[in-house]
Write a structure and sequence with these properties.
Layout (H helix, E strand, L loop, with lengths): L1 H67 L3 H11 L5 H17 L3 H14 L3 H14 L6 H8 L10 H14 L3 H12 L6 H16 L5 H10 L15 H9 L13 H6 L28
Amino acid sequence: MTDLFEEVEEQLRSDRYRALALKALPWILGLGAAALIAVLAYWGWQAYSRKQDAKASDEYSQALDDMAQGDRAAAQKLWTDVSQSHARAYKSLALMQLGGLALSDKKIPDAVKLFDEAAKAAPDPIIGDAARLKSAFALLDTAPEQEMEARLAPLMKDGRPYRIQAREALAFTKLMAGDMAGARSEFLLISQSLDAPNGARERAGAAINLIDSGSAKAIPQVAKAAAALPEPATPAPGPAAANPASQNRASQNPGPQASGPQTPSSQTRSSQTPSSQTPASHNPGSHNPPTQQQAPGPQ
């Protein structure tokens, strides 16, 4: 009799487990299907991202080649396409290149907007802070001191990749604003920083000497006067340009030269600003002095 009761109880327990398994089966299958879909979706997204990165890399490199060959329009179009892609690193780099082109065209607000967009799109602080620093450099001559401090203060925190360059920009901002004490304090910190590049320490030391001697007080007025100068006009080629012999005679018999100090133009000053130079737009050959052709003498 006891065996009968145990057999019935075992049968009931088996039926109960079977019913529970049937109720849980749809949930188990659903969870398995969801996990499979998640894995496939992740794999698909990774493949799509790699494809987008490869495409953006090719277009970005092609734009650099086009810019090096002087085809600015083609390079600008490719960088615009890359700036709309999902490859965050190349998108940020392309936006910085477009900002550099806008800066070379004296479109400061457009350049600042592009640099700020590049900072937002950057995948890491190295690219992002580079874009923020370029934006600050573009505003160095025009933005108020408070705005520059707001832009540069986060970049000067410990661990940021360009904290020395940001502090140097802040020091020049204070110098341009006439705050000699504040500028000297920032330059002094740079000169005493062990991780500062040698060039930054040398510039800081030179700036401290200028401030201590009192010569730095005239820098803001000189910079504003230089910025107000018009762009130098490029003379149109005259008849002498088509006659090499007349050029040789002119080089051998120079006319009277204008005397007096030369005032730097705004173009020269902007070419010395670190933010105005981009790898694609900088042309080292443009600074080579012209050479004079000498007429061949008798052999």
